[in-house]
Amino acid sequence: MEKPREWLREKSIAKKILSKSDVIFEVIDARIPFETRNSVVEKLAKERNKRLFIIMNKVDLVPESFAKKVKKEIEKEVPVILFSAHKSTGKREIENLIRKLSKENRLIKIGVLGYPNVGKSSVINKLKGKKVATTSPKPGMTRGEQLVKLAPNVFLIDTPGIITLEFQEDLALKGSWIPEKLEQPVEIAQKLIKKIQEKRPEAIKESYGVEPSQDPYETLKRIGERLNYRVSGGEVDIDRTAKKVLWDWIKGNIKAYWI
């Protein structure tokens, strides 16, 4: 499977933002925290001696006990702030950090990095208190970088999602690739369903009202039947169903999470 052609461009963006920034906020998805940590970003930050903080966004989509467990684990390496752009969780903690940084009597730039769709723009808008960054459930909606003023001497640098060296399939499972752009949406939706069935099988029934099968393809078929997605002739439209499941994952409509 072809790796995204954009990865070289994205890596160069990461390097550019890292070189411009004094502090890095790496935004990750609380549902799949370890899968949305970007090893390239973290390695580059470490090599350049940048202060790194992980903003674990979307904590409203996971149980509090799960979020705290993940925070404790990641904090063995990097400080973590639990955040929900939707519910304003963690906003005060970040504001306190920014206040502290603003006392350094020099211009401070904070680079905000992370995979597409982890909610970087939502975090920025919440901190600014108004919409200054593009938000969309479509991964990759931020185009180019922009500076956002948070204090007289503290600025955030909003950036496009950093995808680095991964295959479309891996990005799709992270919710970082638009389903319509996938060559094999059915295959990838089956992999996602298999993962959900392993980690939190009740999420399928909660989201679609169907009992999952041991066979992910059969589960996908049951979901299509329940949604009444049909092709001419009455067969289940499996392609449309697969894309719907992948979009539901991107939008946070499937309540599954794992370490």
TrEMBL record:
<dbReference type="GO" id="GO:0005525">
    <property type="term" value="F:GTP binding"/>
</dbReference>
<dbReference type="GO" id="GO:0005737">
    <property type="term" value="C:cytoplasm"/>
</dbReference>
<feature type="domain" description="CP-type G">
    <location>
        <begin position="8"/>
        <end position="165"/>
    </location>
</feature>
<comment type="similarity">
    <text>Belongs to the TRAFAC class YlqF/YawG GTPase family. MTG1 subfamily.</text>
</comment>
<feature type="binding site">
    <location>
        <begin position="117"/>
        <end position="122"/>
    </location>
    <ligand>
        <name>GTP</name>
    </ligand>
</feature>
<dbReference type="Pfam" id="PF01926">
    <property type="entry name" value="MMR_HSR1"/>
</dbReference>
<dbReference type="InterPro" id="IPR006073">
    <property type="entry name" value="GTP-bd"/>
</dbReference>
<keyword id="KW-0547">Nucleotide-binding</keyword>
<feature type="binding site">
    <location>
        <begin position="57"/>
        <end position="60"/>
    </location>
    <ligand>
        <name>GTP</name>
    </ligand>
</feature>
<comment type="function">
    <text>Required for a late step of 50S ribosomal subunit assembly. Has GTPase activity.</text>
</comment>
<dbReference type="InterPro" id="IPR030378">
    <property type="entry name" value="G_CP_dom"/>
</dbReference>
<feature type="binding site">
    <location>
        <position position="161"/>
    </location>
    <ligand>
        <name>GTP</name>
    </ligand>
</feature>
<dbReference type="InterPro" id="IPR016478">
    <property type="entry name" value="GTPase_MTG1"/>
</dbReference>
<keyword id="KW-0963">Cytoplasm</keyword>
<protein>
    <recommendedName>
        <fullName>Ribosome biogenesis GTPase A</fullName>
    </recommendedName>
</protein>
<dbReference type="InterPro" id="IPR027417">
    <property type="entry name" value="P-loop_NTPase"/>
</dbReference>
<dbReference type="InterPro" id="IPR023179">
    <property type="entry name" value="GTP-bd_ortho_bundle_sf"/>
</dbReference>
<dbReference type="InterPro" id="IPR050755">
    <property type="entry name" value="TRAFAC_YlqF/YawG_RiboMat"/>
</dbReference>
<keyword id="KW-0342">GTP-binding</keyword>
